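Entry 14. Structure prediction run on the chain below.
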Amino acid sequence: MTFHHLMLFLHLIGVVVWVGGMAFAYLCLRPAAVELPPALRLGLWARVFTNFFPLVWGAIVLLFFSGVAMLLEVGFKQAPVAWHLMLVTGLIMSGVFASLWFGPWRTMKQAVCGEDWARAAVALNLIRQRVGFNLVLGAITIAIASLGLAW
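Output returned:
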């Protein structure tokens, strides 16, 4: 096993956790949870995010550590253009996640604790929009990684 293989493995683990988690939440959990009454639905999402969001922080650290390590291994100038694009999309996705974490997620936690379901629902909608954006950008990033610029 080479250093590059190890970094690629770690990188893929980060992608699976983050993008896979968003896909599950957005495409599977969300349609099922929408049928629940507000108190149950918002409480469920608060518990899901309490578990998932720390994993996203870990995935971000893993992705940047492994991605930068691979870039440094080959040299920034020699790295494929697709790698540079992945770095840009990763930075954008991380910024979107940070804005979600420090914005609507904090609001939602407080609102759920205070049983302010209307305020929690507004915050959840903002989270949903940002997760949807990141899910699309994550899919584009996967396309860049797997197809390069051929697509």
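The mean pLDDT is 96.
Filed with the rest of this week's runs.
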